[in-house]
Amino acid sequence: MEIDKLQLHGFNNLTKSLSFNIYDICYAKTEQQQRRYIEYIDEMYNAKRLTQILTDVNAIIGAEILNIARQDYEPQGASVTMLISEGHVPDTITNLEAPGPMPDSVVAHLNKSHITVHTYPESHPYGGISTFRADIDVSTCGRISPLKALNYLIHSFESDIVIMDYRVRGFTRDISGQKHYIDHEITSIQNYISDVTAERYQMIDVNVYQEKIFHTKMILKDFHLDNYLFDTDKDALTLEERTAIQKQLQREMAEIFYGRNYKLRR
């Protein structure tokens, strides 16, 4: 499909920002299990691994890395900031609305764009619920688009819940001097999510088209208790215990997804 190219006067000054909150939830009953879960997350998503994920994102969106800073924290968590600039964008650029690749197919000196990630492992003060949150921001200027990295990022983390915001800021001018406040068509972040990903998640949109603000929330459709038990054998639990744990987990997920607390029923 032939794409009409916008003839610009100078550099494309539009800023495209994509922000993620990615959540993983699990059940770790004892204090020791909760500590081991935090240690597992810290090892699984340490600064070195996060740097590799962001390096892959950089390659997907077609940017050039300028500098990287990364840090592992005590007692837990990590951060990576990667400052990038627009790399070579081929003239035969593919449709921006086509979903980007899946995984199998961190301060740096900012020139025009940046990618950051921060992790927040934590344990519930009671009840055995532990959560892991990763906050990711991909902000680009020019023709490169952070939306191409959507599917890769969703599948690079154990994503039970994904909350995303995409916004286009500023304006750029064409050769006639007319301002353009967006340089691509978009009705929803879901336009850029692959069918494989979309089939796994329930999704809700809240979009403000006139302000070029797009918000999508995703939560896994299928719930299998085995996937949420950390250092706990499901067969060692009674039916009543399994039911109670499942209710706890699903309540935690619903509260995060809808952004509100629910009262416990007596």
Outline the structure in words.
This is S-adenosylmethionine decarboxylase proenzyme. 23% of the residues lie in helices and 32% in strands. By secondary structure, it is of the alpha+beta class. It has one domain (15-86, 109-258): 4-Layer Sandwich (S-adenosylmethionine decarboxylase). The strands form 2 sheets. It has an 8-stranded antiparallel β-sheet. Strand 2 (63-72) and strand 3 form a beta hairpin. The termini are far apart.
What brief labels describe this structure?
two-stranded antiparallel ribbon, 8-stranded antiparallel sheet, 5 helices, S-adenosylmethionine decarboxylase, 266 residues, globular, 10 strands, alpha+beta
